[in-house]
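[agent] plan:
  1. take the single chain provided in the ticket
  2. run structure prediction with default settings
  3. attach structure tokens to the ticket
  4. add a short note for the reviewer (M.T.)
[agent] executing step 1
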Amino acid sequence: MPERSVPEYLRQFGEPVGYLDFARFGPVSTAVQEVLARSAAQLHRGGWETLDGLDAEAARTARTAALLLGCAPHEIAFVSSTSHGMFAAAHAFGSAPAGGTVLVCRSDFPGAVYPWLRAAGNGGLAVRLLEGPVTVDAVRAHLDDRVRAVSVCAVDSATGYRTPLAAIKELIGPQRVLVVDAVQALGAVPFAADAADVLASGGQKWLRSGWGAALLLVRDRVAGLLGPGLGGWSGVVDPIDAPDHPRPARPGAVAHTVTNPDGPAVAALGAGLGLVRELGVGRINALIGEALGTLLDAARAAGAETSGGERTDDPGAGADEAGGSGIARLRLPGADPLAVHDALTRAGLATTRRGEWIRLSPHASTGPEPAERLAGALRAAAAG
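[agent] step 2 finished; step 3 output follows
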């Protein structure tokens, strides 16, 4: 795949100048827009060649994802969302013969918590909730013979904390499953993807690919530790003409799919993944770090307290996990958080408020102007 220069990459985007909310949704690239338009035109014309074309796009997307995550293409399947992927993981673990206990962080984004709670409610597994952040020591303190899996978010959506995936996987060993919600990392943050036994990530945030498709990675090394879970007709061998059911599971991650994916959305996801490969996630992360650093400097100069955004200092983190997450928070001492958030909105800045904190999550395409707006809005809010 040819490399793309930074200016070429940045020309792909056209979000509003003050948009600082990529941890919620990333406005899509020109490449994604073109893929979606092309797919819509193909669907309008119809015909079997349309389905063949979408199947080919899905195969290309799987190959691109496999190159980014260090796996084989058959270890990649496509589902509708990150939450769908996490539900597939939870029910696959819950339907495994061995069953057992899974460690889950109580403060993780609910999309990474509820799949395990619902699977536990259906029987087959037990959930032990940890207090965040999920460190190696926190996992070690809860590790016993009953624990068969650990579920984590690669990056915490509220604080930007980066989980030391490699060290946790080394701690729990090959006979336990590490499940990773990577939606706040993939495309923006270098992370130890090879530590993840199962990984789910949609494309609507840092990949800037819109909704409707998520990748689900299930490595062959843990296939024997998982059951069929949510696997539907698309996940079994010869589901149409077979004389009896249930049918054997298909090899690879597709065994955990409910039905065929949204073809145009998968093609859009492939376009987003392709842009990341062409520029490189390390360069994207560096650009995001520069933008976030400028914002945080401006916030502190205007009297705000900040948290997050720095490179991790966790001793369990590997060399490929040392970059910043792209997510940070601020609060203005003595000011009403609602009033501060309103002031930022009036200044044309798109952010997310979580309790007393306001989250900043810029992208590589964020320029210097938002920092000036941020400082002015904070000073205005401090003055009442």
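[agent] step 4 note for reviewer: Residues 30-277 form a domain with the Aspartate Aminotransferase; domain 2 fold (CATH 3.40.640.10).
[agent] ticket updated
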